[in-house]
């Protein structure tokens, strides 16, 4: 035993930690934790707090340290309050504001941590400080770990033009361990080798031969392809259920070598028919078409294009809470799905007050007043086109403005004038007035100016009409009782003031109604306006602004009415005001406590004991359970309960519970009232109990009790006296103590505090003076019912339970569903028939389960991904799975042209010796040797990944020529921060605005430019807390940041702080505005940027710019941009660079697209820069998620050549020349840079016309191109010069991306993306045609023009299909010299170095 203990392995530590965590987690959560650890999904969070700590910075040699605020007695410095982030671990101490914050940076489990932790938790519990813990390691280990959650593709390349480098790579002779998938054509080789060890070699040969024959990559005939998808489905459905996912994974991920064997599978007619029937139904109900791939978890749609395993894990965790809750409430099996799919009404942000109230005095009525009688009244008028900004005049009360006014306030006069203005100008606005004046009976118009004003207004309205009254009521001067009677005498000398203003006035009707309506509505301070019932903010009530705001509201709400008319919700027969007031967000009263969006709920899914003891009044089957919490020995507590009682008696469907929260220590004497209430609830019928409690709560009963009257003297008729007395006399005080503890521990109330709980939702800690009226209870009931209570009630009814149990269940389920984070609508996905086309895997009984429905064509990229996902999912959780084979019929080409692996493990894996395995990798076994393959990494949206080591050409993998294993290692270099930025005053993206990202100690680490498309920007970053700023220079001079969403600092804070702490995408929104004095300035105007930008650019390696070279030199640099992928093109690229440098005396800076360069090129380029003295910079940009994605590597690279020119380079680069890698330059490119582009943003060379024998291949001379170009030429994209200033100024990049987005949806358009796009856009973005000698290529130009050529391009020749290398040596004599010069230099240095590898690694 001793040695076993000593040998404790990593694996047993891991199991111990999981076991310890299991004490706090359910089984399902523990499985999800294992999955999260396997995914390393918390690594960024740990890395993030490490980075935040390093920014502090940590004191030297400390393994744990504390940082705090408000610390005069601890340190001499008083620091500003540190930022606390949303995901910080804050100790649950006392809830007080302005406590000092103490942040502990330490490693959990160390001695230092324990001593700090002990002190800090004690202080936090005493309410002396806020304690925050952040993970910190004093010396983190540099080892990297392997990640998962990404895909790797080996795409089969076309070998029409041979483009493979002939330089040999020294191979690694390691043997590829044979795959677990050891069965080949029915032979189990592992078993055979065990039983016949003497035949090892022959068996290996046989296995290889069989593999070669099954991996038959010979092309299929078109008629053999037609049915492949159905045949794959038939194969999957024919194997035993538990192997079917494995078979699906194998067929989709190794399709190129499985295609031949599938052609022999027979498909039954039943299966075909069933698939077609289901497809018809799915396309009608969900809009899913044949071949589409969709995943639904518990009815939630998970879009596979945007979701990755990390976000799916988040969804699973969110769902687990609801699923386990329902399971604990004994809702299982088919009931689970029914409750889950109940639509829970989301919390509305804005509520509308019902304006159908008699207290409103309407000035006009658009529908009935004669002044509007010539207007059309048909709703269809709304749909008629008008000029922008025109308000349609329709005889309907679409727009209603209600003003709540106190005549004594100065603003009231201004607002009345505004109402008059709207009326006179015949704006289609119905205007209502509510005057809030003194309601007392003992005052009249002579003593109170407000009352006088109201009576006078009524008098004039009686004589004329309300609009006239409003117009004429211009009393002049300040309003007082004197000015009113003077005005009356002056204007209406015949009227008797006593009859109008006096005590016996005839014009006092409805005076109290206004004040009452205002009080009951719960609105804020006067004056106040409602537009269609929606209250305007106090800052919108300025009469100067209000006019514009109302007109804007009319314009905005017109669109909503148009939509309602268009979809048929609003029809001719309906009253528009009724339609408006019957919307779900209309309430009878405003109470921010009840309507706030920030809601807290009790968790009822725990131990059942706590709630079952709470007895209620009206214990029928009710949808709403309200609990009143308070100290009922005090007036506010009694008042609250009394109001609740009145409400409950007036409106059925509510039950009432009472919880005592006494201020002091409960004893026999001070709990008499509450025990009597409790006893009556337990023993009496509803009506009797309600009447008795109501009597008890009245102040006279309280006085009697204080005078030592016995409770039994207060009993009423109709009560069961014996039962009551028996109960009352045996009630102990202890149960009140337990309620008091419940209030403290669960509800977090201090003794004596009041609260209202409605179906588990805790409403406010009511302040001493705060009233919660009957109307508030009415509103609360309405809001609770509207949430999900009504729908839950219908569902619970079907379960046929006893009333009390049903009400309890209803309350608990409602709290559970309402507390769940709001997600999109759950879909009910089912199939018409599911015998032949749906794969069913059933869940384990009596456990929490996820209901997963998948619709997938087994031969698509979705299937390659989803098959592995489902295998992992079924190991992580209990899953009820249905997979529908959504096959596409009549295929005319191979549906998949790649091998694929999806790297995902359900749990951390260990090696045989119990240590942790290095991590998940993508393994491709048994690949056919003949095809040429190219490797693609398919990673989550926000990952920037690059190859860090591989001696092989990953663009051209040819297994025939490799001994042993091809390995490659990629590294996750950055996580992306993406965002959208808009100018608040124009609503447009601020083109050319620059952001920088950094930390407090190093503010400029990364920078970017905002695009006009969607105001999009992206910044490279890593886990940690970052500060986003406007770039110093013009951006910061002209603009300022106003607000931001999705960030981690308050929306109005000056510093925009963004925390990256997960592998998810982080997308923020930033709104900026020009500074007042810079309104007329333009970011992209011609002024120079100064040298600041250039110098602050962080050069990635070697080529950093010298600070003191001054501006002149920068302008003189030649900037050359190029892209290359694969060893052959990198070899060409080096030759192109040397040829450029040979022909110019100007300093050169090369810009390379980093995304696709090989590790060996990145390693050698710095040495080359030294030898040939040039500068270089590696730029990278992630293809934005909203821009149509290309799947083929070559087309992606073409896209990078043209689509991102405005954002790849800093603003200080004025001109850039793109030179293809396979070009040889024979002239000074300075000439091209200085060439006048005559106002065009870029210049290209047209295709040569001189080689006559190629005429048949000149596609641009006929068809679409001939008609589109007209007299213009078709240009070649191998060489072009871009005037970046002009390019940005006319938003050329945004136009190109817009056109690309439109055209690229059609797979047949843009066949040469980088060339077709600018030529297609020639009418919108002009091209300057460069002189022909700038680009000569043998395919299109005749031999005589070669002498004058300034650059020679090695174009592909569609006629001869000559390989690149032979063409280069034949056409360009100097090419061979350049090539051998670079080779000699490379070998002299010891070559590119070769390393060994895996998948994305994360520091």
TrEMBL record:
GO terms for molecular function: UDP-glucose:glycoprotein glucosyltransferase activity; unfolded protein binding. Coiled coil: none annotated. Pathway: Protein modification; protein glycosylation. Its main location: endoplasmic reticulum. It is found in: Endoplasmic reticulum lumen. CDD domains: GT8_HUGT1_C_like. Keywords: Endoplasmic reticulum, Glycoprotein, Glycosyltransferase, Signal, Transferase. GO terms for biological process: ERAD pathway; protein N-linked glycosylation via asparagine. It catalyses: N(4)-(alpha-D-Man-(1->2)-alpha-D-Man-(1->2)-alpha-D-Man-(1->3)-[alpha-D-Man-(1->2)-alpha-D-Man-(1->3)-[alpha-D-Man-(1->2)-alpha-D-Man-(1->6)]-alpha-D-Man-(1->6)]-beta-D-Man-(1->4)-beta-D-GlcNAc-(1->4)-beta-D-GlcNAc)-L-asparaginyl-[protein] (N-glucan mannose isomer 9A1,2,3B1,2,3) + UDP-alpha-D-glucose = N(4)-(alpha-D-Glc-(1->3)-alpha-D-Man-(1->2)-alpha-D-Man-(1->2)-alpha-D-Man-(1->3)-[alpha-D-Man-(1->2)-alpha-D-Man-(1->3)-[alpha-D-Man-(1->2)-alpha-D-Man-(1->6)]-alpha-D-Man-(1->6)]-beta-D-Man-(1->4)-beta-D-GlcNAc-(1->4)-beta-D-GlcNAc)-L-asparaginyl-[protein] + UDP + H(+). Its cofactor is Ca(2+). InterPro entries: Glyco_transf_24, Nucleotide-diphossugar_trans, UDP-g_GGtrans, UGGT_TRXL_1, UGGT_TRXL_2, UGGT_TRXL_3, UGGT_TRXL_4. GO terms for cellular component: endoplasmic reticulum lumen. Residues 622-818 form the UDP-glucose:glycoprotein glucosyltransferase thioredoxin-like domain. Residues 8-141, 213-341, 354-594 form the UGGT thioredoxin-like domain. Residues 1118-1384 form the Glucosyltransferase 24 catalytic domain. PANTHER family: UDP-GLUCOSE GLYCOPROTEIN:GLUCOSYLTRANSFERASE, UDP-GLUCOSE:GLYCOPROTEIN GLUCOSYLTRANSFERASE 2. Recognizes glycoproteins with minor folding defects. Reglucosylates single N-glycans near the misfolded part of the protein, thus providing quality control for protein folding in the endoplasmic reticulum. Reglucosylated proteins are recognized by calreticulin for recycling to the endoplasmic reticulum and refolding or degradation. Belongs to the glycosyltransferase 8 family. This is UDP-glucose ceramide glucosyltransferase-like 1.
């Amino acid at each position: 035993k001793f040695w076993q203990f000593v040998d404790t392995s990593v694996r047993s530590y891991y199991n111990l930690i999981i076991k310890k965590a299991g004490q706090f987690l359910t089984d399902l959560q523990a499985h999800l934790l294992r999955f999260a650890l396997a995914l390393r999904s918390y690594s960024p969070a740990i890395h993030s707090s490490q980075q935040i700590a390093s920014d502090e910075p940590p004191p030297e040699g400390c393994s744990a340290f504390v940082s705090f605020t408000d610390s005069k007695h601890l340190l001499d410095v008083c620091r500003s309050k540190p930022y606390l982030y949303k995901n910080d671990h804050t100790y649950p101490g006392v809830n007080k504001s302005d406590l000092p914050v103490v942040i502990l940076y330490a490693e959990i489990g160390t001695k230092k941590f324990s001593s700090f932790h002990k002190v800090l938790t004690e202080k936090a519990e005493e309410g002396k400080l806020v304690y925050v813990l952040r993970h910190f390691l004093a010396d983190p280990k540099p080892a990297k770990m392997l990640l998962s959650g990404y895909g790797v593709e080996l795409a089969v390349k076309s070998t029409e033009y041979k483009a493979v480098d002939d330089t040999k790579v020294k191979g690694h002779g390691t043997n590829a361990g044979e795959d677990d998938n050891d069965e080949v054509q029915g032979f189990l080789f592992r078993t055979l080798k065990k039983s016949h060890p003497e035949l090892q070699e022959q068996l290996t040969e046989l296995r290889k031969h069989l593999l070669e024959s099954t991996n038959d990559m010979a092309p299929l005939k078109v008629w053999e392809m037609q049915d492949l998808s159905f045949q794959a489905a038939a194969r999957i459905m024919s194997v035993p259920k538990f192997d079917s996912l494995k078979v699906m994974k194998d067929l989709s991920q190794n399709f190129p070598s499985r295609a031949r064997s599938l052609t022999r599978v027979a498909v039954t007619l039943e299966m075909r028919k069933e698939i077609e029937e289901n497809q018809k139904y799915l396309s009608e109900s969900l809009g899913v078409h044949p071949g589409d791939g969709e995943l639904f978890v518990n009815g939630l749609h998970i879009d596979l294009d945007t979701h990755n395993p990390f976000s799916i894990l988040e969804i699973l965790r969110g769902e687990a809470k609801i699923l386990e809750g329902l399971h604990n409430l004994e809702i299982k099996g088919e009931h689970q799905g029914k409750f889950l799919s109940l639509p829970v009404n989301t919390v509305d942000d804005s509520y509308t007050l019902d304006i159908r109230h008699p207290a409103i005095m309407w000035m006009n009525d658009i529908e009935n007043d004669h002044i509007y009688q010539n207007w059309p009244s048909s709703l269809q008028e709304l749909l008629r086109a008008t000029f922008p900004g025109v308000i349609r005049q329709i005889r309907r009360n679409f727009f209603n403005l209600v003003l709540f006014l106190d005549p004594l306030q100065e603003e009231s006069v201004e607002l009345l004038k505004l109402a008059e203005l709207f009326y006179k100008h015949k704006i289609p606005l119905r205007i209502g007035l509510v005057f809030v004046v003194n309601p007392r009976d003992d005052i009249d118009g002579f003593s109170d100016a407000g009352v006088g004003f109201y009576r006078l207004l009524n008098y004039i309205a009686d004589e004329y009409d309300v609009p006239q009254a409003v117009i004429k009521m211009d009393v002049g001067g300040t309003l007082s009782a004197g000015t009113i009677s003077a005005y009356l005498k002056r204007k209406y000398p015949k009227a008797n003031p006593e009859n109008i203003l006096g005590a016996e006035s005839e014009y006092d009707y409805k005076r109290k109604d206004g004040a009452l309506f205002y009080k009951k509505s719960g609105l804020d301070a006067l004056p106040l306006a409602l537009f269609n019932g929606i209250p305007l903010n106090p800052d919108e009530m300025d009469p100067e602004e209000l006019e514009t705001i109302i007109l804007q509201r009319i314009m905005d709400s017109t669109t909503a009415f148009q939509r309602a008319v268009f979809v048929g919700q609003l029809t001719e027969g309906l009253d528009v005001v009724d339609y408006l007031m019957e919307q779900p967000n209309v309430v009878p009263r405003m109470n921010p406590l009840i309507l706030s969006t920030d809601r807290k709920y009790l968790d009822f899914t725990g131990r059942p004991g706590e709630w079952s003891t709470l007895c209620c009044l009206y214990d029928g089957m009710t949808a709403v359970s309200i609990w009143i919490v308070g100290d009922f020995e005090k007036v506010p507590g009694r008042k609250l309960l009394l109001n609740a009682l009145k409400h409950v008696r007036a409106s059925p469907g509510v039950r009432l519970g009472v919880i005592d929260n006494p201020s002091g220590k409960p004893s026999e004497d001070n709990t008499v009232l509450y025990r009597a209430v409790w006893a009556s609830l337990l023993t009496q019928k509803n009506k009797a109990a309600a009447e008795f409690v109501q009597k008890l709560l009245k102040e006279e009963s309280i006085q009697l009790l204080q005078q030592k009257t016995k409770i039994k003297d207060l009993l009423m008729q109709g009560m069961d006296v014996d039962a009551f007395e028996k109960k009352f006399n045996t009630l102990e005080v202890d149960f009140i103590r337990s309620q008091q503890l419940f209030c403290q521990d669960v509800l977090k109330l201090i003794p004596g505090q009041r609260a209202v709980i409605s179906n588990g939702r805790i409403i406010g800690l009511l302040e001493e003076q705060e009233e919660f009226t009957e109307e508030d209870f009415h509103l609360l009931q309405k809001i609770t019912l509207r949430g999900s209570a009504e729908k839950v009630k219908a569902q619970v009814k079907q379960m046929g339970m006893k009333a009390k149990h049903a009400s309890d269940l209803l309350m608990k389920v409602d709290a559970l569903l309402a507390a769940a984070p709001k997600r999109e609508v759950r879909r009910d996905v089912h199939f018409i028939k599911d015998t032949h086309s749906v794969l069913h895997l059933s869940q384990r009984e009596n456990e929490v389960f996820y209901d997963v429905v998948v619709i997938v064509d087994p031969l698509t990229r979705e299937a390659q991904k989803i098959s592995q996902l489902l295998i992992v999912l079924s190991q992580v959780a209990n899953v009820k799975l249905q997979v529908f084979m959504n096959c596409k019929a009549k295929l005319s080409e191979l549906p998949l042209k790649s091998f694929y692996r999806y790297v995902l493990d359900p749990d951390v894996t260990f090696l045989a010796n119990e240590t942790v395995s290095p991590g998940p990798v993508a393994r491709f076994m048994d690949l056919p040797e003949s095809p040429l393959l190219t490797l693609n990494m398919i990673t989550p949206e926000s990952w920037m990944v690059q190859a860090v080591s591989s001696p092989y050409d990953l663009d051209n993998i040819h297994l025939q020529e490799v001994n042993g294993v091809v390995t490659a290692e990629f590294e996750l270099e950055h996580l992306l921060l993406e965002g959208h930025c808009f100018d608040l005053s124009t609503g447009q993206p601020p083109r050319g605005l620059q952001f920088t990202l950094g930390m407090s100690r190093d503010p400029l680490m990364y920078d970017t430019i905002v695009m006009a498309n969607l105001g999009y920007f992206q910044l490279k970053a890593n886990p940690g807390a970052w500060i986003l700023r406007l770039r110093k220079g013009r951006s910061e001079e002209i603009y300022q940041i106003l607000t931001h969403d999705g960030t981690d600092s308050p929306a109005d804070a000056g510093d925009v702080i963004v925390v990256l702490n997960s592998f998810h995408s982080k997308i923020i929104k930033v709104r900026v505005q020009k500074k007042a004095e810079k309104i007329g300035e333009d970011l992209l105007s011609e002024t120079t940027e100064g040298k600041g930008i250039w110098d602050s650019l962080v050069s990635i390696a070697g080529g950093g710019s010298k600070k003191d070279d001054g501006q002149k030199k920068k302008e003189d640099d030649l900037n050359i941009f190029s892209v290359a992928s694969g060893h052959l093109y990198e070899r060409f690229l080096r030759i192109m660079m040397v040829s450029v440098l040979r022909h110019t005396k100007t300093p050169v800076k090369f810009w390379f697209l980093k995304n696709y360069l090989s590790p060996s090129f990145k390693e050698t380029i710095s040495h080359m820069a030294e030898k040939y003295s040039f500068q270089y910079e590696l730029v990278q940009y992630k293809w934005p998620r909203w821009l149509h994605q290309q799947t083929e590597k070559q087309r992606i690279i073409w896209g990078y050549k043209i689509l991102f020119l405005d954002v790849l380079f800093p603003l200080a680069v004025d001109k850039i020349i793109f030179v293809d890698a396979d070009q040889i330059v024979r002239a000074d490119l300075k000439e091209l840079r200085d060439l006048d582009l005559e106002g065009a943003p870029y210049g290209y060379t047209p295709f040569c016309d001189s080689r006559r024998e190629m005429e048949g291949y000149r596609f641009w001379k006929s068809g679409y191109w001939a008609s589109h170009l007209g007299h213009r030429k078709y240009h070649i994209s191998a060489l072009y010069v871009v005037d970046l200033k002009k390019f940005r100024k006319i938003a050329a990049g945004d136009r190109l991306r817009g056109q690309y987005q439109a055209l690229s949806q059609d797979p047949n358009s843009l066949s040469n993306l980088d060339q077709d796009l600018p030529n297609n856009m020639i009418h919108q973005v002009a091209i300057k045609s460069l002189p022909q000698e700038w680009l000569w290529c043998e395919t299109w130009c005749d031999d005589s023009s070669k002498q004058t050529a300034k650059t020679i391009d090695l174009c592909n020749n569609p006629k001869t299909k000559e390989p690149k290398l032979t063409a280069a040596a034949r056409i360009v004599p100097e090419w061979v010299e350049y090539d051998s010069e670079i080779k000699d230099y490379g070998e002299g240095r010891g070559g590119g170095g070769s390393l060994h590898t895996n998948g994305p690694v994360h520091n």
